[in-house]
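S1.2 Input.
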Amino acid sequence: MKLYSFFRSGTSHRLRIALNLKGIATDYVAVDLRVDEQQKEAFKAINPQGLVPALDTGEQLMIQSPAIIEWLEEKYPTPALLPADADDRAHVRALAAMVGCDIHPINNRRILQTLRKQFGADEAAVNAWCGHWISDGFDAYEALLAADNKRGRFSFGDIPTLADLYLIPQVESARRFNVDMNRWPLISAVDQACGELDAFKRAAPMAQPDA
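S1.3 Output.
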């Protein structure tokens, strides 16, 4: 398989974690968002949206990290990224969606570049924008962790789940935008637990060849 990725992309980061947890090796193809390589014709032929990640399975080209991760879970069900119980699966999916639907999309590069170029935001304003939405989402995530009587070392229980795939890249992003993580001790504890696992270490942005 070929993974089209950018080291600092949160969506690429979450997919790298999933691949590592599933034990699936890929050839890493760097797409440099810093020079808008994702908008060039060569990559648009792979993903017309001009977004990373993309995964070439050898049989098909797949886009959108949620869809790819769901495919991985169906195709390679062990180890599972979702709990066995339907109610628990809904809870884990909700945690993942809080990041994937409500925090990350309004803090990604396309939005930030628009804030800079179209609305004249300087870096302090960009950091404030990101910090606001990350904090808003993390406050809710932290509250759900605190209320969960099944909480273990990770976002749900004592093994990594889909929720952690989404959370950890967002924590990485929070630090990049100078958000003080001391405000969320439970999230920070999950981040520490994940950081002890090889699958998360190897997926980290600075561990990638294009870092």
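S1.4 Remarks. The radius of gyration is 17 Å.
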